[in-house]
Model the fold of this input.
Amino acid sequence: MERTSRTGERGKLWVPDEPTWWQRGIVYQIYPRSFRDASGDGVGDLAGIREKADYLAWLGIDAVWLSPIYPSPDVDLGYDISDYRDIHPAFGTLEDFDALVAALHERGIKLILDLVPNHTSDQHPWFFESRDPESARHDWYVWREGRPDGSRPNNWVSYFGEPAWRYLDPPGKWYLHSFDPGQPDLNWDNPQVQEAIHDAMRFWLDRGVDGFRVDVLWLLGKDPELRDNPPNPDWHDALPSRLMLNRVHSEDGPDAHDRARSLRAVIDEYPDRVMIAEMVLPPARAVTYHGADLDEAHMPHNFALAELPEWTADAVRAEVEAYEAVLPEGAWPNWLLGDHDFPRIASRVGPERVRLLHMLLLTLRGTPTWYYGDELGLPNAVVPPSKVGFPDPQAALGTELDRLPVRSPMQWSRGPNAGFSEAEPWLPLASDNPAMTVEGQRQDSDSVLNLFRSLVRLRKETPALAVGAYRTVPAPDGVFSFERYHPDGRVQVHLNFGEGPREVEIPEDQEVVLSTAGKAAPPRAERLELRGHEGAIIGRPEQRGGKVKGSRPTGPLPSTVPPSG
Ligand code: GLC
Done:
């Protein structure tokens, strides 16, 4: 059998002594407009999410991250907030929110809210006040005079692709918007702004929220002089206009780290809370947001897989090793395949590889974040122009991905509107196949949903998978193989990214614990033939069932990893 190592062995021999809930857990992202509509208006809501709390518990996930639920004119579907201390009327009330927190906590599920500190809506009362140059809030946003020739204060381009400044009179100045003009940037150089956001965080933490996912954290540090960004020499017509400039002065400056630390300090005022941060940066830069003293985000999101251009074993292995290599000592890793801004995995990698990606995400070292509906293998929806009530500002400029198809309703049952709503859903369903529903897949033991659930359960029951160390191991061509190691046991994971079959060895005393193909190898087999796009987890049968408890110290690892078997 071919067993060539092209990578050697490396990895982090580090296991947390007392893993926190967010280290051993799985985070599940819900797009609130699209999970379940209890009020019958075609738009998902908080009461709908509460109705589905038992589903979340059945799945076995540990924490829910909700995309923004605050009042918003929905220029960027909730990422333009007009009040940081209330609930969007479409989603319910603060009472609904409290009831949701209680329902999740009763089931041992944590709740993480999206926090959008870089910008508000232009309909936020702070922005109205700031338009008055005499107002105490004038300096809460980034207002500047134009250049002497009347042009914009600098050459920055917004993430949605147009110039990042808009002129308003009053006050007769330009304001900065890193996204849509309806999302003016707050002035984070102003301590009052920082305090206002910190207080908004406390408002929700006091209500029992278990943490935040901080939107575009790296944008909180801009060049104090707002200097022009230099041109990007690699830009060409086929790339989006937001990439025309190298964004060296408009983001990721040293101040972003001070601000990250200040947000973390608020989190740390409360016990057992988590700070996650959006970080669409190359991993080497993203991990700096753990903080030099691990005092910034607990988990700056790792988008390496979300942005992977090709899904080969070599490409995936290289990303995993590169991330492991740059992760600072003591920092806890995390992985996601995508979120509400990326095409759904079934559409990105093809339905035939969905099961393999489930196994990849749920066996890597680090907290997985899962996007609702991917557990059914939902594809992107087709959204006809007539259905676009809330156009995506990113798509409006024509060059970038329209994110609406990624945000279609969760599919629950074979009933009308897939059980999402009694009324016509705000976006079309991604599929009218009854098998693409929770009801359809729950009954089918071979379904993607049941594979997801088995993987979740196995991860929780196997300390090596939940919190163990990682190392790459030799693999046949086209296969990505790694080992997860823990004092309580070890497992090997083999993921065949190729089309053709490949053989891997099964060490003595071990067996196939789970395969994406749903088959078991015969007892005491020495080899396993992986089919194309099949993944398998191999371990000792008795290693299962050692529950990962938060409070139980697992003891230090030996300094070298003993040989397998
Ligand atoms: C983040 C969000 C995205 C939003 C943007 C502006 O990238 O994930 O959906 O458009 O921030 O708030």
Summary: The longest strand covers residues 479-486.
